[in-house]
Write a structure and sequence with these properties.
Helices cover about 70% and strands about 0% of the residues. The protein has three helices and no strands.
Length: about 90
């Protein structure tokens, strides 16, 4: 159940990427994937390589996904910006 909370929070964070320049690796879809993967990986790491079940899931589980989603988006943005800059130098 916690995995659902992580994915939903990542989805909510991803919606704010419309306010940023589209320099994400893979575009807006790449940002979506990076956000979800980052949130799930971070959530699993924080919980000791396990996914809490229904009885162990509280509101804090959703908040644990925020740093992971932001890290995933940051990595995607950094890679996309470097790739775009390299393509501009070649042209």
């Amino acid at each position: 159940m916690a995995a659902l909370a992580w994915v939903m929070m990542a989805l909510a964070i991803w919606h704010f990427t419309v306010f940023l320049p589209d320099k994400f690796w893979g575009g807006i879809v790449g940002a979506f994937v990076a956000s979800i993967i980052g949130a799930v990986i971070f959530g699993v790491l924080i919980n000791g390589f396990s996914v809490p079940g229904r009885t162990e899931t509280d509101l804090i589980q959703a908040f644990e996904a925020i740093p992971g989603a932001l890290i995933g988006l940051g990595i995607s943005y950094f890679i996309g910006e470097r790739k775009e800059r390299a393509e501009e130098e070649l042209a």
